[in-house]
């Protein structure tokens, strides 16, 4: 499809076109030939890939945690650390990736361990900023089990700062959200020092 819409009236009437048509149009705008062999199936592949990378919009934290909240007599810190994350920055739609560390001190209930990475997926598999993922994960845990406190730290590297723009290859971004007792110096320090232990430092 050629000249699907003039660049100036982006959005107007585009709903009439399939997602694959829109990607085919974009290939042309990138000065490519969408009909050459290697690109023929690309719109279909990109559609699938983008649906996968944004699947978090269709995921519901409450549903994920349902059935995996347990009454346990344990009141020390639980930490799930070094969870790999991949997300897309909402400004450039380029990936950022790294690790998330999540901790909480229960108040009668704990969360099934595998559900913590699943919860992280809900919020990373969207167009995001790192800060928002960090607070959304903390808030979701707070809401689910009302613990004595929650801490979330995310370390990530953003391709929009690496392969374009400022082109800094070594910088990483660290964000944190601390709720309840994690706002107190001692708990925060214990969490951060446990996160640092045995951490290779390589994202
Ligand atoms: N706070 C925050 N900023 C982000 C995140 N991901 C990307 N950004 C920033 O969003 C900003 C967008 O700035 P603009 O000046 O509008 O865009 P730009 O001209 O492409 O900026 P440069 O990247 O500096 O070239 C940039 O500074 C990005 O580094 C994120 O997760 N959190
Ligand atoms: Zn970006």
UniProtKB/TrEMBL annotation:
<dbReference type="InterPro" id="IPR001474">
    <property type="entry name" value="GTP_CycHdrlase_I"/>
</dbReference>
<keyword id="KW-0547">Nucleotide-binding</keyword>
<dbReference type="Pfam" id="PF01227">
    <property type="entry name" value="GTP_cyclohydroI"/>
</dbReference>
<keyword id="KW-0862">Zinc</keyword>
<keyword id="KW-0554">One-carbon metabolism</keyword>
<feature type="binding site">
    <location>
        <position position="89"/>
    </location>
    <ligand>
        <name>Zn(2+)</name>
    </ligand>
</feature>
<comment type="subunit">
    <text>Homopolymer.</text>
</comment>
<dbReference type="InterPro" id="IPR043133">
    <property type="entry name" value="GTP-CH-I_C/QueF"/>
</dbReference>
<dbReference type="GO" id="GO:0003934">
    <property type="term" value="F:GTP cyclohydrolase I activity"/>
</dbReference>
<feature type="binding site">
    <location>
        <position position="92"/>
    </location>
    <ligand>
        <name>Zn(2+)</name>
    </ligand>
</feature>
<protein>
    <recommendedName>
        <fullName>GTP cyclohydrolase 1</fullName>
        <ecNumber>3.5.4.16</ecNumber>
    </recommendedName>
</protein>
<comment type="similarity">
    <text>Belongs to the GTP cyclohydrolase I family.</text>
</comment>
<keyword id="KW-0342">GTP-binding</keyword>
<dbReference type="InterPro" id="IPR020602">
    <property type="entry name" value="GTP_CycHdrlase_I_dom"/>
</dbReference>
<feature type="binding site">
    <location>
        <position position="160"/>
    </location>
    <ligand>
        <name>Zn(2+)</name>
    </ligand>
</feature>
<keyword id="KW-0378">Hydrolase</keyword>
<feature type="domain" description="GTP cyclohydrolase I">
    <location>
        <begin position="22"/>
        <end position="195"/>
    </location>
</feature>
<dbReference type="InterPro" id="IPR018234">
    <property type="entry name" value="GTP_CycHdrlase_I_CS"/>
</dbReference>
<comment type="pathway">
    <text>Cofactor biosynthesis; 7,8-dihydroneopterin triphosphate biosynthesis; 7,8-dihydroneopterin triphosphate from GTP: step 1/1.</text>
</comment>
<keyword id="KW-0479">Metal-binding</keyword>
<dbReference type="InterPro" id="IPR043134">
    <property type="entry name" value="GTP-CH-I_N"/>
</dbReference>
């Amino acid at each position: 499809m050629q000249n699907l819409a003039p660049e100036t009236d982006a959005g107007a009437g585009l709903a009439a076109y399939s997602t694959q048509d829109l990607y085919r149009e974009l290939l042309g705008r990138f000065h490519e030939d969408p009909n050459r062999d290697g690109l023929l199936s690309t719109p279909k592949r990109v559609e699938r890939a983008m649906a996968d990378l944004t699947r978090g919009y269709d995921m519901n934290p409450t549903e994920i945690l349902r059935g995996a909240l347990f009454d346990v007599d344990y009141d020390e810190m639980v930490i799930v650390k070094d969870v790999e994350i991949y997300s897309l920055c909402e400004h450039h739609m380029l990936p950022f990736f790294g690790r998330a560390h999540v901790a909480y001190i229960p108040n009668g209930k704990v969360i099934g361990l595998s559900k913590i990475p699943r919860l992280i997926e809900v919020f990373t598999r969207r167009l995001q900023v790192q800060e928002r993922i960090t607070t959304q994960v903390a808030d979701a845990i707070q809401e689910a089990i009302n613990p004595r406190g929650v801490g979330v730290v995310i370390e990530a590297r953003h391709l929009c700062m690496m392969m374009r723009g400022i082109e800094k290859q070594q910088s990483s971004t660290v964000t944190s959200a601390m709720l309840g007792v994690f706002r107190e110096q001692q708990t925060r320090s214990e969490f951060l020092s446990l996160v640092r232990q045995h951490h290779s430092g390589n994202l």
